[in-house]
Amino acid sequence: MEVISLKLDENMLNNIDKNLSKHNYSTRTEFVRDAVREKLEKMTREELVQEFLKIKVHSKDGKRVTDADLRKAREEAYNELVKERGWKLD
Question: 0.85 exceeded by the pTM?
Answer without folding.
Answer: no
